[in-house]
Design a protein that fits this description.
782 residues, 4 domains, seven-stranded mixed sheet, 24 helices, globular
Length: 782
């Protein structure tokens, strides 16, 4: 196996020059991408050039094209927008402009371009590549370059990264900037909700997205909006009446506010625009509600990038350099993107063509096709929104006579409430009676169980912590009482939302089935813990919110050091024995080192980190950031590391330490966690419905098979149901972590970006895939 592996050490960029530019509308996270390209490029021995002001800088040349150094991208990670500037460029659209651009690149030996922008910018880059040899011939003929120079620079390689807050590019699940834009929208919606509640108001919010409704759709999902209007799915004729009916119904149900979200490109069936003013007039005219309009505008493009965007952009930037190093003259221009949790490379023009097909389908009123072309992620968001937003009248509901119980187990995690809301509402839509259990298995044993109706979970998506109450107690010692409560309430299925205790709890319930027939019912667990330590799932609800809390704090701490200079901060993160928060938090905040249990370290490693920081203090970046997972080592405690660094750094730098503690568990859930919680719980409830039908025999539910007690987790590109009993072999029960963890592959990235020489296995990247596969209808995508 060893010989098929590819390592970064075997890839050399010596003698190569890479130009990096940002083009088109700016997006948060572009700077993180630029930083990753520059540092990875320098790391492999290539020269990297900033091309300022996008294509305009390439055409104008001169000081717009400057060589980048390692230090020149310091402090960029936390800055929104693009530091190297972006411009919409008319000149580059002309042949003459592209000729000048080619000359400027050849003069500096640049034959590798990394373009960060939207589909227009990437299409321009591809045209430039196709014309390249012709442009060089012209330059030779006019005597501007020599024949030899033309031969040396005969091939132009292009790799694109999509930076666009609209998430309007086909082939990639998330574009750089989308998650940060959602953060801005949700911050505004949360703030508006409090004032709307005070005055019983209706708010109409316009979000960006001229041709793509992604931001509107996902923010509507994340805040539980009453109505959403997007270009891909115009409302059916008569929607005005339907919308007003829904709003008044919600008011009658004691809901004090209404939120309507409109994408700026929203249209009706006849392609006529639907504006915020039109909706406001409609609500005032039909219902007489006090209505206000808020247009978010460029707020959505601004602010600091979220942790997700920094990690996405850093991973993409490194992947882009690898793609350029491996490109041969015949390699088509490609885009590096994310599919599920995996980095992939796709042919640039296939993605562009499919993106244009969406617009064409919309222009020709083939709206259902447009939704499918947008991709699995978009389609699933839309289906989940439809499922949750339209309460059916009792007469329309299928009655199933099944009772399903929902509970939270373990420590609180942001996003749990969104998952409970989703589970309750989908359960009711499927015709079940849904019971909510307070205080986990302990509350279950005491009979703290009550039926939840549709309105009982209104407004839950934006609430942090666990509104149901959650405890770490395991069911084994209360098993008789739990079985009794299952019998009293006639519970036919269980949905457990929680952390490692929930996983252990499910294993215990399954083991007790032989003694208690009441436990022979379908059970499913949805992972929710800030530690992200659940086997069978790459991600868990709550981890993204915790990462953002860590990243925000690290940003502030780094800023405090910029005044004092020569200071190193040692920060302790949560996570039990799982180093996810320390590692990924380190990548997102530009840490110099992250100590974790999974990668043992000794005094020599600590010594070399101190020496590395001493060297760093000689440069213009006079501050350091070191993260330590709380249980990374029994003896090398945070205090020990702080004292060691203080002593060894005497006269060179001073130290400060911070323990972040429970602030990582609190706060309003991030858009990602609200969304992930909503979608994964909806899917879990649909699985329960399917299993209830499957295991219903002679008037009762009896489920005793392995696959009737599952964990629903995200694995690479899809959501998968896995029998908990089969996950036992993948679990280190002593340290409460999975034996194999995908994010350990990101550790070399963090080290490379912090200037450490390291081994990095890049076998996973590199295969150019085709977009066609992504079209297949696949419900397992998230």
């Amino acid at each position: 196996m060893q010989d098929t592996k590819k390592f970064i050490e075997n890839l050399s960029g010596a003698g190569k020059s890479i130009g990096v530019l940002t083009s088109g509308g700016d997006a948060q996270g572009m700077n993180a991408a630029v930083r990753a390209v520059v540092r990875m490029g320098i790391y492999v021995g290539a020269k990297v050039f900033f091309i300022h002001e996008g294509y305009q800088g390439m055409v104008d040349g001169g000081d717009n094209i400057k060589e980048a150094s390692w230090e020149s991208v310091s402090s960029m990670l936390q800055v929104g927008g693009t530091v190297i500037g972006s411009a919409r460029c008319k000149d580059f659209r002309t042949h003459e402009g592209r000729l000048r651009a080619a000359l400027n690149l050849v003069q500096r030996g640049i034959t590798n371009l990394c373009v960060i922008g939207g589909d227009g910018s990437l299409t321009g880059a591809n045209l430039f590549r196709e014309e390249w040899s012709g442009l060089l011939d012209e330059l030779v003929q006019s005597g501007q370059i020599s024949e030899e120079a033309a031969q040396t620079h005969s091939a132009l390689h292009i790799v694109g990264m999509v930076g666009s807050i609209d998430n309007d590019f086909c082939g990639t699940d998330m574009t750089i900037g989308t998650d940060s834009a959602l953060h801005r929208i949700i911050e505004v919606v949360d703030a508006i909700m409090t004032t709307a509640q005070s005055h019983q108001r209706t708010f109409v919010l316009e979000v960006m997205g001229r041709h793509c409704g992604y931001l509107a759709l996902v923010s509507a999902l994340a805040c539980g909006a009453d109505w959403v209007l997007i270009p891909e799915m115009p409302p059916k004729d008569g929607w005005e009446k339907q919308m007003c009916h829904k709003l008044s119904e919600n008011r009658a149900d004691k809901k004090r506010l209404n939120i309507i979200i409109v994408a700026e490109g929203a249209i009706d069936q006849n392609n006529k625009p639907i504006t915020t003013e039109l909706i406001k007039d409609l609500v005032v005219r039909c219902l007489g509600f006090d209505t206000r309009v808020t247009i978010l505008g460029h707020v959505q493009r601004g602010g600091t990038p979220s942790a997700f965007d920094r990690i996405l952009a850093s991973r993409m930037g490194v992947e882009a350099v690898l793609a350029l190093l491996e490109a041969s003259p015949g390699t088509p221009a490609c885009v590096v993107s994310l599919c599920g949790n995996q980095a992939v490379r796709l042919p640039l023009m296939e993605c562009v063509q499919m993106t244009q097909e969406v617009q064409k389908a919309m222009d020709e009123k083939r709206f259902e096709e447009a939704v499918k072309l947008r991709g699995r992620s978009f389609e699933n968001n839309l289906n989940t929104y439809k499922l949750l937003s339209h309460r059916k009248m009792n007469a329309e509901l299928p009655r199933s006579s099944f009772n399903v119980a929902v509970l939270n187990v373990g420590a609180p995690a942001a996003g749990m409430n969104a998952a409970v809301r989703s589970a309750v509402r989908v359960g009711i839509t499927e015709g079940h009676t849904v019971f909510a259990v307070s205080d986990g298995f302990e509350g279950f044993s005491k009979g703290q169980i009550k039926e939840f109706k549709w309105g009982d979970v209104g407004g839950w998506t934006g609430q942090g912590g666990s509104l149901l109450g959650t405890k770490r107690t395991l069911p084994a010692k209360h098993i008789d009482k739990i079985a009794e409560q299952m019998r009293i309430h006639n519970i036919n299925a269980l949905l457990v939302i929680g952390g490692f205790e929930a996983y252990l709890g499910l294993l215990e319930l399954q083991a007790a089935r032989s003694k208690h027939a009441e436990l022979c019912v379908p059970m499913v667990m949805v992972p929710a813990t800030v530690s992200n330590n659940i086997p069978g799932s790459d991600l868990s609800i709550g981890a993204d919110t915790a990462l953002n809390a860590i990243t925000d704090t690290c940003d502030r701490i780094k800023q405090s050091a910029s005044g004092t200079k020569r200071r190193v901060f040692i920060i302790e993160t949560m996570g039990g024995y799982c180093g996810y928060l320390a590692t990924v938090g380190g990548l997102a905040s530009g840490a110099d080192a992250a100590y974790i249990y999974e990668e043992p370290f000794d005094i020599r490693d600590l010594q070399s980190n101190v020496e590395h920081l001493t060297e760093k203090m000689k440069t213009s970046i006079q501050r350091g950031l070191v993260l330590r997972n709380e249980n990374s080592s029994e003896n090398y405690t945070t205090d020990f590391i702080y004292q060691l660094y203080s002593e060894e750094g005497k006269g060179v730098f001073d130290c400060r330490k911070n323990v972040l503690g429970h602030m990582q568990q609190g706060g309003a859930p991030s858009p990602f966690d609200r969304n992930f919680g909503t979608k994964i719980a909806a899917k879990a409830m649909q699985w329960i419905s399917k299993k209830l039908k499957e295991f219903y025999r002679e008037g009762r539910v009896f489920a005793n098979t392995e696959d009737s007690a599952c964990l629903l987790g995200m694995r690479r590109r899809a959501l998968v149901f896995q029998p908990v009993i089969q996950l036992k072999d993948e679990t280190d029960f002593v340290h409460r972590i999975p034996k194999e963890q995908w994010w350990l592959r990101l550790r070399p990235l963090m080290k490379i970006l912090a200037k450490y020489k390291t081994s990095y296995d890049v076998s996973d990247s590199g295969q150019l895939e085709h977009i066609v596969r992504l079209r297949a209808k696949d419900n397992s995508a998230i």
